What we know:
The complex is a heterodimer. By secondary structure, chain A is an alpha+beta fold.
Amino acid sequence: MKNYKIAATAMLACFALGASGCLLSFAYMSVRELSRQSRLDKQAAFRLQEIESRKLSEEHRNWRELPEELQRFRRDYFISMDDFAAFRRDLNSCLAANGFTAANITSQFGRSLSKTRKVTISFSLEGPYRNLKKFIYDMEQKPKMHFFERIELSSRGETVSGKFKMEATLDE
Amino acid sequence: MRKINYNLAADRKINGRSFAWRAALLVLATLLLAGLAAFNLSRQFASDRSEMSKSGMIGRQIVEQQRLDMLHRKEIAAWKKERGKQLTAANRLIQRKSFSFIARLDFLENIFGPGLRLRKIELANESSGRIKVAIAAQSLKELYELYKKLAPFELIIANETQTADGYLVSLNFGIGNEKL
């Protein structure tokens, strides 16, 4: 009888120990979960910082590559001194294609600034509005760095007279 | 006389089989609870270990990243000073190249109705896209319809003269690239 009693007490004690251990393990997990949350917040902050850093790196890369990009931009779009004659021929052929004669075209060369020179080209035309518009359209479509600075159109009966001022950027 | 013993438990017989059953159940439950506790703790320790190593790595990465960011910011600030003007000049040229006179002429063609005649147009390659026009109108009705159409484009009426044939008006308005 006594042996049974001892055995039962021992087994109940073991059960109590197991149950309390189990409860404590759950409590420990809850406590760790709370501290894990703060670590997760830190990780989220790190991820945000990572995104910001990526943007900064992108900006840094763009600024680093800027001289090459500017060089490419100049090479592709600026008119070199050698190409200026070609540009003038192109302007004349564009005028002729729209029924205008290239007369009194003046080119005024500005001073050199950062290896570029601004050239202002002025001329007047007279003809039908449609032809003038087509000429403007044709010149606007050209990829090189020249554009109209100012245009004045006045109607004179059936024809329209136009004063044009163009700007071309030369690469020296 | 025979002594009567009232304590029945003193000589109570315990059924060994029933005790064994109950004992086995208790042992099983104890083992289950202990196993559950061991499983929880081992899982928690494993995840703690991996997170500790990860957070340690993240900490090192944060420090390295902050150092790199500071270096990048310094370089960017220096480059902005050095190359900012060139970039602004290039962007200004691109903006001027993309200015469309044709789009503005199309706009004028669409907005002018019958009874109105354009006498003079002045267009300049500026970001504000201001256009100066001189118009001859046959009637006030047509003229005011035009004013209404141009009202959203910062319309400024410079002068309006009534003549024997109709009305002569000088006005200007702005069409930026974003409005086309």
